[in-house]
Structures are given as C-alpha cells and as structure tokens.
C-alpha cells in the first residue's frame, strides 16, 4: 500500500511504497503501466522482497543502522572480491569520443534470447567498482549483464574534451543500440542505474519517451533534482561533499581519464576557463556547474540543468520504473526525495536503512538487497510485459 514520503521511513524492516500518478487520465498506456507496476510491487511485497534487512542477527544490527559502517562493509566486500572478468566493446561516438560496454564474461554463456541487463555505474564508477554485486548475478537471475561505461570511465581515456558527470543521453542510446544489436533475439532489456547512473537512466528514459530501448528500469539511490541536490549535500554533510569533490577532480582533472583536459593549451579560451573553474571549485555543486561546458552546454548551468537534470524529463518517462532510496542515505539526502511521483508507471520504495548504494545484507553481509530487489523487479516486469493481457501496443 502507498504511504506518505514526507518523513523518513520509520519502520525498521518494511519498506514504504509510493506509487506514481500522472496528470492525464486519458493516458491509457500510462494507466496500464501503473497497473503493471502495482501488480509487480504487490508480488514483491507478498514474497517478502521489500523487507530490509532480511537477516536481523543482533550482532549485525549496529552495522545496518549506521550508514558509514554500511559503506565500510561494502568497501571491504569490493576489496576482497577478485577482479571481474569482462569482455569489452569500445564504441567510437560521432564526435570522436569513446564509450564502452563491459560484458560480464559469465553472462556470455547464456542462450541468445536471454534477457539483457544494462548496469550504469555510480560517480566515476565501472564494472570493477560493482564487482562484488555483479559476480554471479547472471547465474542467479538469468540476465546477460552489460556495464555501460561513460566517457572517461572504466579506464577509458578521453579522446575529446567532452564528458558529462551524469552521462549523455545520446551516448547512452548509442550504447543501448549496440547491446540490442548484439543480441537481437532477446526480447527484454532492463536497466539499473546506481547513484549518478540513476540520473543517466532517468534522463535517457525521459528524453526517449515511448521510443526508449529499455523496457523497464531501476533508479537506485537517485538524488532527483541535481540542480539542488548538491546544495543540500554541502549544507548537510560538507565533509562528504569535500570527499566527492576531491574524487571527481582527481578523476577528471588529474588522472589518466583527464589527460585531454590536463593541457589547457590545447583548449579554446572558453574551455580553458571552464577547466580553471573546475580546478578551483570548492563544492560539488561548483564543480558540476563548471564542467557544463565540457558536457556540450556552452550557455552554462541553466542550459545543462534544462537538458540533463532528470527532473526536467521525468514526466515524459513511458516505461515501468522503480525508484529506490534509503532514509539514512548520506549522499542522496532525504530532503531530496520527492513527496509525489508525477508519472504513471513508477514506484518509489524507501527503506529506513541502506546508506548510499550499499544495502548490505546476508549472514556475512555478502549480498546487496538493492541488487536483489532491482533484479526481482525487472524479472517480474519482463514476465508481465510478455503476457498478452498486460501488453499495450503503444506502450512497448
């Protein structure tokens, strides 16, 4: 059942659910999506999938209830996990840039008609960032897993002075087209966007509408309105904001992926000024607004937020979507979570605990509840969309 999201989730175990509601009562495909999503969420609730944490041993409760201990547990998992074996496809964009797709090797053994799962990583992330979750995912779920690396991610060197912290929807479509063409017998493509990747998913879905190549998606730990989210972060957790800032400055301006930007002499005056501002940024909000020139928005932050803020396109999403947040998230703060979801076919699920893209679970904290719920949602959507009684021709 739906409950208000105006306050953080208070039940320690049962997630709150808020269903989206569009304004157009004549939007029959949208109403059909809403019915589909409600039936899927009801099934997940019945199966106990929306209970977190599932393993409640008293020795683990102090980890669950601390967002920073959750992040530490996730970091430990990742460090201890062997490198993920992947097969990489590098794709050259029309402007000479490069993006890539990392196919998880184990998933390549699946039959040609296996459902597809695109994973869009977190800020500066890659397949190896999420290897603790991705290892064994195909064997458990039956999804063929492909990780979409944005420009400058996953060890890719920037070949042109262009990048976007939250990903470019044109690049995203280019990658998704490649995935579809690689396995044309597959009839379902799901997507999971994690943190910054969730903004990439939402913006792609909104700008594509009914033409989206993705059939259903999950936005895990979104901050929603990116024009205000980092301002909230600076006020609520300036130390964490500073850590994120140092991470992106190192990644884009100092590391291998930032080699094109490192030589301001090769840039035009406007680009050199944008580079200077990015280097001098003292908050994440300042960095995001300084980098807009490199995202193809010469008119600055106003143009960037109009084109790349997920909330600018949210009402145009025409596919089933699960939005997943934790009430104790130290990055995508509770203040950023909307109290209403203004689109048919979406469900916002919020837990009391989970931190930022952690949701550690299991007897040995070896599982990710976030990934378990995300794949369960997508699997149920694939089954529902394949059933003739729930498929609307204009909705596919």
Mean pLDDT: 89
In what order do the strands lie side by side in the largest sheet? 1-9-8-7-6-4-5-3-2
Our count of helices gives 15
Q: Which segments are poorly predicted (pLDDT under 50) over 5 or more consecutive residues?
A: 1-11, 390-396
Radius of gyration: 20 Å
Percent of residues in beta strands? 5-15%
Would you count the extended β strands for me? 11
The best one-word shape is globular
**Largest β sheet strand count, sense and barrel closure:** 9 strands, mixed
* Structural class by secondary-structure content: alpha/beta
Oligomer classification: single chain
Helix % is 25-40%
Kindly report how far apart the N and C termini lie: 27 Å
Secondary-structure element series:
EHHHEEEHHEHEHEHHHHHHHEEEEH
Characterization of the model:
- Helices cover 40% and strands 14% of the residues.
- The chain is α/β, with parallel strands linked by helices.
- Strands 1-9-8-7-6-4-5-3-2 form a 9-stranded mixed beta sheet, with helices on both faces. It has a two-stranded antiparallel ribbon with strand order 10-11.
- Helix 7 links the parallel strand 6 and strand 7 (216-220).
- Helix 1 (28-46) packs across helix 15 (369-386).
Summarize it.
The chain has 396 residues and is α/β, with parallel strands linked by helices. The protein contains 15 helices and eleven strands.
Topology:
Elements: E1 16-19, H1 28-46, H2 58-64, H3 67-80, E2 86-92, E3 98-104, E4 116-120, H4 131-134, H5 137-141, E5 144-149, H6 169-182, E6 189-194, H7 196-208, E7 216-220, H8 226-236, H9 238-254, H10 259-262, H11 269-280, H12 284-290, H13 301-308, H14 310-313, E8 321-326, E9 346-351, E10 360-361, E11 367-368, H15 369-386
Parallel strand pairs: 4-5, 4-6, 6-7, 7-8, 8-9
Antiparallel strand pairs: 1-9, 2-3, 3-5, 10-11
Helix pairs in contact: 1-15, 6-7, 8-9, 11-12
